[in-house]
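Good day; I would like, with your permission, to put a structural problem before you. What I wish to show you is a protein chain and, alongside it, a tokenised description of its three-dimensional fold. Please examine both parts with care and let me know of anything in them that strikes you as inconsistent. Thank you for your consideration; the sequence and its tokens are set out here:

***
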Amino acid sequence: MRKDFVMPVVVLSLLCLFVTGVLAIGHHFTHPVIERAAAERARMAMVVILPDAQAFDEVDLSLFNLPAAVHAVYSTPNNVGYAVIVATMGFAGEIRVLCGIDPQGRVIRTVILADSETPSFSAPVFAESHVSNYWGQDRQGIEAIPIISGSTVTSVAFKNAVRYALDAFAIVTGGTP
């Protein structure tokens, strides 16, 4: 009777261990490819946001005390502006936003790099008709932009992403958020 109880547990445990190993190996080989593709998408989006930039130089984030949501900051050698990648938590998961900021600290444009939000809820928040309200705004100006009812969590997450991007710009350029 003991063997009838122990054997299925051992077999299922070994099976779970095997499947976990296969998944770990798959992740090991696919993760770098996925990361390179995401970096390339972000690079292409930076060109859209700051088309006059000659290049993008990554800022060393360890030199600054930035909000944890800030994942990367890029400056432009010809001083066209900054590109800031921020990740905030929406209703269904992470929202990754690229925010272009001009040298005066105003939002040039924003691009949603990735999100896991429910499309019916995120569509009004990510629609150009709403997102364009942020364009041309500074830190004080974005506070007047209303939160979208029915998509409150996603809307707040997007607004926070823009806030964090503007705060990062202020800190990196020597100002205060």
